[in-house]
Specification:
It holds the Pfam family Suc_Fer-like. The protein is built from 3 helices and 7 strands; from the N terminus they run H-E-E-H-E-H-E-E-E-E. It is α+β, with helices and mostly antiparallel strands and 167 residues long.
């Protein structure tokens, strides 16, 4: 659980209470230094799956982590999987939102098309409810804004919009 207050105080303010609640329930909860994605705090890196979960607080974290351990990642809290490309992560999240929670790290995505400079078609397989999902992923550059609690400089960020093409 990220609780690195030196990099961004939000990580400590949001992360430490989550770490405390999870440590009451699970033996292997550690507070760690910065894992990135300040704007998604509280942030958790679940090992060994490499799944990033975010937007956690002391109330939501126990259920989100229990669901992850049961193989049901909630797309509202899923930030991605370390082994997946960002475009694939977005497509996997869209697949989970459309077809129900599943283990994100078990889904496989492959970029199968690139119809425009900031658009990709991604094929996602491995979801128990559907054999294959094709997702269009569009890269969006967000306007400069504070991206951390103590941000003194506005920064540009990237996000991805998705649309299911077919299944």
């Amino acid at each position: 659980m990220c609780s690195h207050g030196t990099h961004d105080q939000c990580c400590a303010v949001r992360g430490r209470p989550v770490a405390a609640v999870l440590a009451e329930r699970y033996e292997h909860v550690l507070e760690c230094s910065h894992v990135g994605g300040d704007r998604f705090g509280g942030n958790l890196l679940a090992l060994p799956t490499g799944t990033y979960l975010g937007r956690l607080d002391a109330d939501t974290a126990p259920a989100v982590v229990a669901a992850h351990l049961a193989g049901r990642d909630d797309p509202a809290h899923l930030r991605g999987v370390t082994t997946q490309d960002q475009r694939v992560q977005a497509a996997v999240t869209a697949t989970l939102a459309a077809y129900g929670a599943s283990a994100a790290y078990r889904l496989h995505g492959e970029i199968v098309g690139h119809p425009a400079p900031d658009r990709w078609h991604v094929s996602v397989t491995g979801h128990p409810a559907v054999a294959q999902v094709r997702v269009e992923v569009r890269r969006i550059v967000l306007s400069p804004a504070p991206r951390a609690c103590r941000a003194e400089i506005d920064k540009v960020a990237v996000t991805y919009e998705t649309a299911l093409l077919d299944s």
